[in-house]
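Why does residue order matter? Because the sequence determines the fold. Keep that principle in mind as you read this record.
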Amino acid sequence: MMHVESVEAQSPLVCEVWKSGEEGQLRIVPLYAMILGFYAILFPYGGSGPVWPTYDTNPVCKESWWWNLFFINNFQTLWKQCFAPAWYVAIDMQFHLITPLFLISLFKWPRFGYCLVALSICASCCYHCILTIKYSLFQNISCLPNYIDGELDSFIHGNLIYFETLHMKPFQNLCTYLIGLGWGHYRRKREICNKRSNSMLILCCGWIGFVISIWICFDVLYFSEESLLKHIVYNGFGGILFACSMGWLFHVCTAKQGGFIGHFLSLKIFLPLSRLSFSAYLIHFMVLLHYIFSSTKQEETFSLQSMFSLIFSVTFWTYIISFIASLLVEVPMSRVLRWIHNN
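Structure:
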């Protein structure tokens, strides 16, 4: 009887979580559509330079704009996508649509829910390994030193295959998403049971596991000698280790046991930046393209000064434009949704 009552009590929570995610998606869709339209139609008129586009409307967007608005553009090749960075927006929406399957399972039948999450993660990892073997995929940046002496074309080609075959597909990011979902449910259960703090033993083991996972991801797998086995392990299981590491940070910070890291991540300066993160994610691509297409330099010697200057310039203008775009579209949409929700 108590189990039935707890399930009934948790059902509104599932609906609330789903509704919150749905409102978040509805809030960003108009902004996404506006940025997509600007890139397709108005961006060519925004500058000039030796390699500046001469078309009136982006020819790729003429053919495939609807893929973006239906959030399936990540199943296209890169060359056929209207707005390449939006592959993650599509994945985000696709995960939102399958969220109820896992949420309802976790809240109503926790054991079955955790088994479903674990099986999905295992299936995703196996699929990563199979694709890595079939297409000889490698992890992109870590392999650059092996191709720097004259095989850059092969490196670029391999990167494109890796990106189109694995990186921008939903099953590549499914492990990370489900680990976050499961960890969030676990945190919710702890709050219900008033178990907010962790023992010293758990904290020590958790931080040791965190350090080992990061070490494996960025040293053992990332910068080790290139081999097929390394690529299989990294593509198949590297994401799990990294997601678990970030999950541990989330866990200790929400329990207010994160120490310096928790205090740093809680600084109020990050709040406005976080609210602009989605628009900045989309707009930074156009800012970078504007810099590249409008450049008149024949060649440029690499230096740390030029690199940091570029990073600062792109970041500054990205957030300025993102702030304006957010005020024009995202904030009004948020208020409309809040008004609808309250009435």
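Residues 284 and 316 are 10 Å apart (CA to CA).
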